[in-house]
Amino acid sequence: MLLTTARMIGVTLVALILQTTLFADLRIGGVAPEIVLAVAAIAGFVAGPNRGAVAGFWMGLAYDLILDTPIGLAALTFCLVAYAAGFAGEVAFRPNWWFASGACAVASAGGVVMLFIVSTLVGKDLVTGSLLRLIVGVALFNALLAPAIMAVVRWSYGRPHELRAAT
């Protein structure tokens, strides 16, 4: 458990560094991928809804410390996204890379919508430009990145048969 926690902290830090450096400048049509959101969704998909929600919360909280948003905004959103993706992973008959890509795309789109709604409720406008373009762009970017992220998250959690027994 301690090794898994250390690995997920490392994965989160690498995702945060990539998000704020490489992926912040990698924009197509004004949209950048949200790699931390994708990692949270895949963590839920791989580890299940409960463990994924915990990982999503901490990833979101770490992301909140970097963003210029109210603390807890991304933490709440990423927690809910990871829980929903974990639920989808449990419902899936045989979760594989293409199902994970689809689930990551849907979870990312839902995460962008939730971030928009929650940020609007607290009076902080995070979306500049078209919301639909942002939703579609982030979903496509994250779906393309999902197989690589899934391999890293599976490594960080250990062997898949140990995951379901521990949940």
Architecture per CATH nomenclature, i.e. the level-2 architecture? Orthogonal Bundle
How would you sum up the global shape? globular
Major β-sheet profile = none
State the end-to-end CA separation: 12 Å
Estimated structural class: mainly alpha
The portion of residues forming beta strands comes to under 5%
Mean pLDDT comes to 87
Report on this model:
Helix 1 crosses helix 4 and helix 3 runs antiparallel to helix 4. The chain is mainly α and 167 residues long. The chain is built from 8 helices and no strands.
Any chance you could write out the topology, listing elements then pairs?
Elements: H1 2-20, H2 22-25, H3 35-47, H4 49-66, H5 73-91, H6 97-121, H7 131-157, H8 160-166
List descriptors.
Arp2/3 complex 21 kDa subunit ARPC3, mainly alpha, disordered C terminus, 167 residues
Brief digest:
This protein is mainly α. Helices cover 79% and strands 0% of the residues.
